[in-house]
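Hello,

Our lab assistant flagged a job as stuck in the queue for most of the afternoon. It eventually completed. Since we weren't sure the result was trustworthy after the delay, we are filing this so someone can double-check. Below is the sequence as submitted and the structure that was eventually returned. Let us know if re-running is recommended.
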Amino acid sequence: MNPLLIFKRAFNSNLGTIAITDAERTKLEARGISEPVAQRYFVWRNAMLLMVIIATVLSSVLTTVNDLRDTGEEPNILESLTGKLTEAVDGALPEGAADAADAAKDIGGKKTDAAAEEEEKPVPEHQPNAFEKFTDIVQSAALYTLVGSAVLAFIFRNRPKLSFRILVAGFLFGFFVPIAIALCPWSWFGFTKETISPMKDPTGFLKTIAEDGIEAAKMLVSLLPAVLALIPGVLKGCLRVKTLLPASTLPGWFIVMTAPLYALFLLAVFVAINQVTNDPLLIGGVLLLVAAHLVYAFRASSFTQPILDDGGFARMKNSQRMVTLFTLGAVGLVVTYLTTRSFMGAHIIGMNPAKAFVTPWDLAGMGMEIISRSMFVGVLGVDLFVRINMTAWNDVKRLAEPGGIGNYQNTMDAMTSALK
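-- returned structure --
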């Protein structure tokens, strides 16, 4: 198979235009698949699964390389900022306050022999317990689950029901297991937290708070790819189903209902960012991204109405172009901000991890993970909504049977009149 043809098919935004070769048509007809729409669906699905395999492999390799590079021994910008913060607090304390805080920790202003010996003991390094070792294995397994499920789904591509179930299982494990692990309390991993009084040791208290904040930020960043890939992946899947089954209304309604909710989520992120920085590049980028998802709501009829002619396809394509333009503008502004601005005196993106929050390797790994997960969700979303459409159509056919629609039609006619 021509690799370029596979690529073009996988990322074709209109599945109704996919051309099928004579050899492919013969193989599909031998399996009892003679309807052209069904043939285009299977041809696209096979090409997309191959691209998902490539993307998930690249994402897994990049993530593994970044994990191996991050030994924890090199200087870290977050640790440096924490040290500067505690030094600033020490300097801001009134003269003699730091000595008074140290004296308050002594008994009667004098350290006991036991306390002195305790201070001289080196702080033991954390040793991972059995639960932490187990979760490390599970985290690594979740990393490669998407790869394995995509490979198996392609191997069993001629058994659509089994292939779909494999994708569902891979999605559930690969997306939700890391979130479940993140919800586990630190005590399960063997960490013990010392209670520090802010009155007796303000510097130590602030340092503990800063370290907890850093760990929370790291956890949030590690979960962001899975969260950010969900809605865009489902939206792309629904758009492809709409082009495959243009008379269907369900994918369009899901797009119109889900996209504004995602925009509200992004708006909440924007509000949090706006409290930290008011840089016009970042604010403009986030607002453009919000506007891109609101386009689906303002041009809802382009997606929800059955497409019965070329004019319907043209309206939907124009709406998608508006979304694309807003998204490209948002990406351009955000990238410009990340590459030209600094935060708290440190570069946002830089080669030296001791002087920058994110390295190009980290950014490439996160970007590839978002793309690969979005592609995985996209092919799963197409499978899911094709099946939802089949179920809905069978229900409609049952209503169309003699005596099937009866009271329901009268009720809906009455509701239509009442809501005018």
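-- support follow-up --
The delay was a queue issue, not a problem with the job. The result is valid. The longest strand covers residues 346-349. Residues 107-121 have pLDDT under 50 and may be disordered.
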